[in-house]
Automatic annotation (TrEMBL):
WD repeats lie at residues 195-236, 260-302, 302-343. It is found in: Nucleus, Nucleolus. This is NLE domain-containing protein. InterPro entries: NLE (IPR012972), WD40/YVTN_repeat-like_dom_sf (IPR015943), WD40_PAC1 (IPR020472), WD40_repeat_CS (IPR019775), WD40_repeat_dom_sf (IPR036322), WD40_rpt (IPR001680).
Length: 406
């Protein structure tokens, strides 16, 4: 008897329910369904059941939650993975399905996209030809200007004292702080200061919540803390690349407040800890993640992995951390955990770190992504979801793709 026949022969008792008031009419009667039932089959069953009680019902697409996990396979496969039995009733929570993000813009850039940040319905982009550019979400280029001949590698956009700024790090070992001025039709980036202190390429940068402090990581294995307070008296204006490239040697030079060295290899990701205004988190090629206390100027926690890290992102509410590595696995960490594994979930689905796909995940579905966002023709180097309704990505195909999330 093959696997399909086995799952057909096994039946489970299930009962639907919803915690949402608008779906309180979902029938909660117990029904028997074959183990081969998938979310598609359950959607058909659920909509037919509701329609039998409500003639005006319009079919909807639901996701199904068993315990705290989304059902993305057949019931039989789920039962085998999570030790469900046919003897008890399986309570299935019904959630309105998250709509797929819709492709919106396809922007052609001058070189590889190293990093992209969305802010105020605009995109701020750093590229490998040393340029900083500002785009509207619908694809209009408002500004582009040269910051260096070497590649720009990272960017963050922040607000301080009601003024918008961009901090851009590059392969030339420096960071440039720019004041952003945006109108409906034009944008400008005015370089204010140049941050010197790193000894190799700057790979990552992040400003804190109020924009008063900046942290950066580099191939020199060091984390540096900077003061963002600006002095515009000696600043120069970069005017839409129509003028000759400015002399950055004339910019005021900023030196770091403190330099922290515990990593043994390149720091490739840095974020501020949203649960502590004096902490930052870094990941490195040396397989380690370090939580730093910037007031004490040292590490307070070090976590290790069996793979080199490539990136990280932190949930601004819970402080949980997502990391990318050189293997095809995205990992969810909880640095507050006092016992057990710090890795709370592993998301499996990428065919490789450079598979040309952006994947949208739900933490309740670790084995199957919600959606694949396609369009890129080569490696993706940057993904940003700073604006809740817009996902932006860029990479080696010299394009920025945006997807609208409803």
């Amino acid at each position: 008897m093959d696997e399909a026949t086995n799952s057909e022969a096994i039946y489970y008792q299930i009962s639907f329910f919803s915690k949402e008031k608008r779906f309180e009419n979902i029938p909660d009667s117990v029904v028997n369904v074959p183990g081969s039932s998938t979310p598609t089959n359950l959607n058909l069953l659920l909509n037919n059941s509701i329609r039998s009680l409500d003639d005006d019902w319009k079919d909807l697409s639901f996701d199904f939650l068993i315990g705290d996990l989304l059902l993305r396979t057949s019931l039989a496969e789920f039962a085998e993975d999570h030790s469900l039995t046919t003897e008890s009733i399986v309570q299935i929570e019904c959630l309105l399905r998250e709509p797929a993000p819709e492709p919106e813009s396809d922007l052609i850039t001058s070189d590889w996209v190293a990093d992209v940040k969305a802010f105020n319905n605009l995109l701020c982009v750093a590229t490998y030809d040393g340029k900083l550019s500002i785009w509207t979400l619908d694809g209009k280029l408002l500004f582009t200007g040269d910051l260096d001949n070497d590649p720009m590698k990272c960017i963050d956009v922040f607000q301080h004292d009601k003024t918008n700024y961009a901090i851009v790090g590059g392969q030339n070992q420096t960071l440039v702080l720019c004041k952003l001025t945006v109108t409906k039709k034009l944008a400008d980036a005015t370089p204010l200061r140049i941050f010197r202190g790193h000894e190799r390429s700057v790979e990552c940068v992040a400003a804190n919540k109020d924009g008063s402090r900046i942290v950066s990581g580099s191939f020199d294995n060091c984390l540096k803390l900077w003061n963002s307070e600006n002095d515009e008296e000696n600043s120069i204006t970069l005017d839409n690349a129509k003028k000759a490239k400015p002399d950055f040697n004339k910019l005021p030079t900023q030196t770091p407040i403190v330099t922290l060295a515990s990593h043994r290899e390149a720091i490739v990701g840095v974020k501020w800890n949203p649960l502590s205004e004096v902490q930052a988190v870094t990941v490195s090629w040396d397989h380690s993640m370090i939580v730093w206390d910037l007031e004490l100027a040292g590490p307070v926690k070090t976590l290790t992995s069996n793979k080199s890290f490539t990136s990280l992102s932190i949930n601004p509410i819970t402080g949980q951390i997502l990391t990318g590595s050189v293997d095809p696995t995205v990992r969810l960490w909880d640095i507050r955990s006092q016992e057990g594994s710090m890795v709370k979930q592993s998301f499996l689905g990428h065919t490789g770190s450079f598979d040309n796909l952006v994947k949208m995940w739900d933490i309740r579905s670790p084995k199957t992504p919600l959606y694949d966002l396609t369009g890129h023709k080569d490696r993706i180097l940057a993904v940003d979801w700073s604006m809740p309704e817009v996902i932006a990505s860029g990479g080696v195909d010299c394009t920025i793709k945006t997807y609208r999330h409803k």
